[in-house]
Write a structure and sequence with these properties.
By secondary structure, the chain is an all-alpha fold. The protein has helices at about 10-20, 25-50, 55-80. The protein is elongated, with a radius of gyration of 14 Å. About 10% of the residues are buried.
Length: about 80
């Protein structure tokens, strides 16, 4: 269960770090990535859905924070996995 202010993608990101430390199998890592991507999709949809304007620039701007967070997590993951 997520704590207030904590998203699903934050939990799955933590799962991927644990997987790296515990040397999870490819199947286990694939499940962690699938949950992460699902959380990212929900986060982007939620951010875009709350935008008052209907123009694509406003909606695109609302999608940037979760995408940037996912990119940073992916970059950190790539650096730490060798």
């Amino acid at each position: 269960m997520s704590a207030p202010g904590e998203s699903v993608s934050q939990h799955s990101g933590a799962a991927r770090w644990v997987g790296l430390a515990d040397r999870w199998t490819a199947r286990q890592r694939a499940v962690a990535w699938a949950v992460t991507m699902l959380g990212l999709a929900v986060s982007v949809a939620d951010n875009v859905g709350h935008v008052a304007g209907h123009d694509w620039t406003s909606r695109g701007t609302a999608a940037i924070p979760p995408l940037a967070g996912a990119a940073a997590l992916r970059s950190a993951w790539a650096c730490s996995s060798g």
